[in-house]
Structure formats: C-alpha cells, structure tokens
Amino acid sequence: MTFQLPKLPYALDALEPTISADTLREHHGAHHKSYIEKTNKLQQESDLTDASLETLVQRADGALLQNAAQAWNHSFYWESMTPGDASEPGAELRTAIDATFGDLKALRELFLERAGSHFGSGWAWLVREKDGRLSVECTHDAGCPLRDGKTPLLVCDLWEHAYYLDHQHDRGAYLEGFWSLIDWARVDQRFAAASTVSDASSQPRTHGAPPTIPVSRTRSASLIGAALLGGLLTLGGCGDDSAENAGKHVDDFAEDVEDAAEDVADEAEDLIDDHDGN
Ligand SMILES: [Fe+2]
C-alpha cells in the first residue's frame, strides 16, 4: 500500500494570520510529506505491507509507528480547522461538552491550559473515551489516541514547526488563534460517527441468525448424546435384571461411550489435517 500526501482542504493563506502561508507550505509540503514518504518506505520493509494507516498506528512499532502516526495526525489536524467565521459545536456535542466540562468556555480554558503547558513536542486532543466520556489529553511526539482505542475528535499540533515562524516562542498566541479556526461541523461529524458505532456495539444481540455450528461438531455431539441416552435407557432397564446382567449393561454402556469418544478423536484429527492442508 502506498500512501499519498492529502491535499489541504483550503488555500495556503486561508488560515492567516494565525497560520501563515509560509508555515503551511513548509508544514504540509515538507514535514507532512516527509512522514508520508518515510511511512511508505518503512512499511515495505515490515510485515504490515497491506495495512491501512490506521492499522499501522494501532499495530506497528518503532520508526514505522512514529512516522505513520505523524502522517495520520497531520491529516487529522488539517481537517480540524477551517477558515471563516468561528462556529460552535452542534446540539448533541454541546450536550456532551456541557455534561463533561460544564460548558464550552470551560472546555476552551482546559484545552488551552493543557496545550499551553505541555512540555516539548506533541499534540493536544479532544477525544471520546472508550466508555463514551469526553476528555482533553496531550500526547508526546507522535502519540495518537487511536493507539489506546480512543476516538479522536479534535487535535492541535504542538510541535514548534506548527507556529514558530508566525509566533516564535508564544505558543499561547497560536493556541488562541487555533481555537477560532476549529471546524466544529467536522468535530460534530466525528462525534456522531463515534456515538453511532458505540450505540450499535452496545445493543443486546437479540436479532439475527443464531451462530452456525460446524456439521462435524453436531455429529460428534450426536454420537455422545446417543451413547449416553442408550446407556441410560439400558441402565434404566436394569430393574428386573440380575446383578450380573446389570454389570453387563454397564460394560456395554462404557464401550458405547468409548466408541463415541474414539469417533470424536478421529474427527478432531481430520479437522487438524484439513486445517494443515489449507
Ligand atoms: Fe506538525
């Protein structure tokens, strides 16, 4: 699988003055491009040659993981922003934000505080946790919440290459500008998609076809069942027999069970042979 550098969803100068065309040209055209190219090279040298970018983030290690995560994070970052007037979260996301943080203002303060105080390079995220709660977290370097089974909803790049040309060391000014560029319509879509998947997976399995039991297993079960039933019927008829006859019935029953067990063992060997043959 060969990954391509995605096109920006807006013009190079569309996010000015917070993010200049020079920053975006270098950030997208050099940094992001480099992560994509390194991911392609390293993937060919790995045992995950057909894996998607998301799968690489979840399963790869070392340099391949770092470059794949940086490639994924940057694509997600470009699509977390939009030019134009500031928007706000939709009703469903707003309800979740209010329930978790109090209100949007409190989320903003928390996000900017965490992102502003994060030491070194990394990313600031709004995520949906596995239990459905929202949270704000920062990851170091190439860290990505996908790795931990969480659902990213929003991200801000905290690497200096994201803001140094425009704001030098003033990360706070960059973060203030970033907040006004958030594409809340996109965040709404991500939140709705995550909620739909979660709702579907939490539904009790009361519909649909029952699981299919392989024919060989039903046959084995039938053999054992027949042996047991036959034995019970035989033993049940012992009431009028002598102790000697009763003992013979028990022996016959034991032989039937042993025969059934041998049949099951033979079937198991056949299954193993079939599997090895495939
Ligand atoms: Fe970056």
How would you explain this protein's 3D organization?
24% of the residues are buried. The protein is globular and about 50 Å long. 59% of the residues lie in helices and 8% in strands. It starts with 20 loop residues before the first helix and ends with a helix. The chain has 2 domains: 21-200, 3-Layer(bab) Sandwich (minor pseudopilin epsh fold), CATH 3.55.40.20; 215-272. Strand 1 and strand 2 (134-140) form a beta hairpin. It has 278 residues and is mostly helical. It has a 3-stranded antiparallel sheet with strand order 2-1-3, with helices on both faces. It is built from 10 helices and 3 strands, in the order αααααβββααααα. The chain has helices at residues 21-44, 53-59, 62-78, 91-101, 104-117, 164-167, 171-181, 184-202, 215-236, 243-277; strands at 122-128, 134-140, 151-157. Helix 1 (21-44) packs antiparallel against helix 3 (62-78) and helix 5 packs antiparallel against helix 7 (171-181). Fe (ii) ion binds at residues 27, 31, 74, 157, 159, 161-162.
